[in-house]
Each structure stands twice: as C-alpha cells, then as structure tokens.
Write a structure and sequence with these properties.
By secondary structure, the protein is α+β, with helices and mostly antiparallel strands. The protein has five helices and six strands; from the N terminus they run ααββββαααββ. Helix 4 packs across helix 5. It starts with a helix and ends with a strand. Pathway: Protein modification; protein neddylation.
Length: 183
Amino acid sequence: MIKLFKVKEKQRELAENSNGKPPVKKQSAGELRLHRDISELNLPKTCSISFPNGKDDLMNFEVTIRPDEGYYNGGIFVFTFQISPIYPHEAPKVKCKTKVYHPNIDLEGNVCLNILREDWKPVLNINTIIYGLYHLFTEPNHEDPLNPDAAGVLRDNPKLFESNVRRAMAGGYVGQTFFTRCI
C-alpha cells in the first residue's frame, strides 16, 4: 500500500514537471516562518542584516550591531544566525563572530541571552532576538555571565570595565587575551 502511494506521488511530480522546468524545492514551515519574520523586520538604525551565502540561503545570515550608547558605543559586532528547519519551535543558534570583552558573550562567541535558551517560545521572532542582542550592549548583565572575569570587573569596578572594553575594542590585550580592533 505504501509503495503505491510513493508511485502515485512520483507520477504526480513527473506530470507537474513535464513542462520542462526543473522541480521547485518546497519550503519547510521553518523557512516560510523565517521569510515572514525577515520581511517584517523593524530594525533599529544601529542594526543591519546580510546574507553572505546569497538570498537563496535564508536559514543562515549575519546581523551587524553598532551600539550608539553605553560601554560599547562605536563598536561593530557581527553575529551569525543558523536557523533550524523546525523554527520557530527551536530557537536559532546565534554566535558572535567578533571577539568581544563582554560578561554575556564568551571568547568563543557563545551568547548568554535567555530568549535563546530557556525562555524561547515560538511566538518570539528574529526581530526580538536582534533587540535582545542590542540590549546586551547597552545594558551588559554581570549576574548571568558567560565570561565570569568580565562580569566580576563590571560588578566590582565599572571604571576598569569601561577601560577594558575600550582597550579591547581598539585592538589590544585585556589580561592575557588579545582582541582585534572592532571600532
């Protein structure tokens, strides 16, 4: 019985494609939802989105954030987004490509943002994540760190934290770690 359905399906596909055109790839539900999310983006002027693999690969893209206030004012930070085919039922995988001295971003680029982990819900969208990332730069959180050293300095000595952020963004060492220029 199952083979009969597969044969019928194959015949229907051949009939649909008999006009000589290549078969059209069907989009997954995740791709359809992502397409809608991207078309409805309402980004702040300090954020932009790009598709390094071309517009045909919507499931992988980059977001650039240029904070205009706070410790990270003037910096340029690039994040990669990898979207699962079952999006929005699974949160996107987000990594920071720019090495940054930040309490909520570790040196490998992992991001500590609650809506990317335990607080993810399918009603959230790409716009929400981008605003969340932007908020990490305007209000870094020392209470939920991925970089405990940076979090400790932010908590105990905000002036030294600001100095370390400036040094890292200008391209230099903070402790034993070298940061490339991102201003």
